Amino acid sequence: MAGSGPDTDKDQGLASALRRFPTHAAQIHTLIERNESFRGMCEDLACVERALLSIDQLPEIIRAARRVEFVQMADSLAVEIERALGQIKVSARKLFE
Length: 97
Hints:
Blueprint: H1 6-20, H2 25-34, H3 36-53, H4 60-95
Helix pairs in contact: 1-2, 1-3, 2-3, 3-4
């Protein structure tokens, strides 16, 4: 697929995480470069968000169910990302205690 690849996926994941958590921009930039698991969660979030944008192209009979499913996936990924960001804050505090 044209335009897809590791850098593009990472960039899209970064953009998705920054939209959800703009006040954590510095931590997101650091984690996305250093933590493969975090980067994967952000890339998954971007993928789900793209799916939500194209939901209206699905047959009407399954559209509502898929919308609910994708919103739940996005919310779940956002919770995981938020948890990872929270762990970074806790780790940073412990370094300075």
